[in-house]
Design a protein that fits this description.
alpha/beta; 8-stranded mixed sheet; 5-stranded mixed sheet; 11 helices; elongated
Length: 351
């Protein structure tokens, strides 16, 4: 199973699919083949691994897979049927598939007389697939909210200038985070104030291979000559200010992960709506003072409503500090333990 998780990581980290790995073993427990899912429309990990074996090798063999074999027909056929047809004798997997349309592969396999073992390295597999699992279970994308601020929590100086709060290393890390998410979401205020392109770029300004889908929320029109309209993925505009509805729309489009980079108004609204799974805070060792705080109203009226965070890591990025944290919840995608729900100024740390 450790090896299956290793090969699963070879699959693309973005897209409407789970990264899954599989290893086929012979009767003596020796590896025969391994496979992984390479993205939507490609063979699933089990089928990919079996394709590297002869029919004789597969009969009675064991397959170890990181996620329960699917039991539905989508872009590809059900893996449960493929395993049965191949004569696999034993299936070992880590975690159940939470998708109601695809769950049930284990039951079909058992009904066909296949020996099925589940729960092997379940904690490791759940951590590996955390973002995808949260998205499937809650019917919305995993949401990461990012902002940059001075040490005293300001997103801009008193005159509104904010380019640049953080240094080059922090800004490049933001571009890497853009590439690691399916979509990037901002409000119309950010587009109008910054003319942000919302692309993921390398050190030399080149476009990275993985580009997030640019999403602009709000009612003000995006200018015809706005840089975001030249984005290689096109532009998605979502009118209104209902972030729950916006996330549902994106989920319906197959978006599993969203990076919110839209300045204090949008970031605060996401937090107040309980839509945040993780925050990335880039802190520059400068003091700005003034009224332009990095967050505005997040629905905390008194100290007993405070939103607690678990700090997962702190990382030095040149002179700046990245704090990665998550709201304290009873379960991924849940609510804060105290009961608080888990015309914009813009953060111009990365255009």
């Amino acid at each position: 199973m450790h090896r299956a998780l290793e090969v699963a990581a070879r699959g693309p980290a973005v897209g409407d699919h789970a990264r899954v790995g599989a290893v086929v073993l012979d009767a003596d427990g020796e590896p025969l083949a391994e496979g992984w899912h390479r993205g939507a429309g490609t063979p699933h990990a089990e089928v990919d691994a079996m394709s590297r074996c002869t029919p004789e090798q597969l009969r009675g063999a064991t397959i170890v897979v990181t996620l329960e074999p699917c039991d539905h027909t989508g872009r590809t056929g059900p893996c449960s049927v493929a395993l049965i047809d191949a004569g696999i004798g034993r299936v070992v997997y880590a975690i159940d598939d939470p998708g109601p349309a695809v769950h049930g592969g284990a039951d079909r396999l058992r009904a066909a007389g296949v020996d099925v073992v589940s729960g092997v390295l379940a904690d490791q597999a759940s951590a590996f697939l955390e973002r995808w699992l949260v998205s499937v279970r809650h019917g919305r994308p995993w949401v990461t909210v990012k902002w940059a601020s001075s040490l005293d929590g300001r997103a801009a100086a008193a005159d509104g200038t904010s380019k640049w709060i953080t240094g080059a290393a922090a800004r490049q890390h933001v571009h890497e985070q853009r590439a690691a998410h399916d979509a990037i979401l901002v409000g119309t205020g950010t587009v109008l104030a910054d003319d942000a392109s919302l692309t993921a770029r390398g050190d030399a300004g080149e476009l990275l291979p993985d580009q997030p889908l640019p999403v602009v929320v709000g009612d003000r029109p995006v200018p015809a000559d706005a840089a975001v309209r030249r984005h290689p993925r096109g532009l998605v505009q979502l009118p209104g200010h209902d972030l729950h509805a916006a996330m549902q729309t994106l989920a319906d489009r197959g978006v599993r992960t969203v990076l919110v980079e839209g300045g204090p108004t949008v970031a605060s609204a996401c937090i107040a709506a309980g839509l945040v799974d993780e925050v990335l805070v880039y802190i520059a060792p400068v003091l700005l003072g003034g009224a332009h705080v990095a967050l505005s109203d997040i629905g905390v009226g008194s100290i007993n409503q405070r939103l607690r965070l678990d700090v997962l890591s702190t990382t030095s990025l040149g002179p700046d500090l990245l704090v990665r944290a998550r709201p304290v919840t009873t379960a991924p995608g849940g609510r804060h333990e105290d009961g608080a729900a888990d015309g914009a100024r813009t953060d111009r740390s990365t255009p």
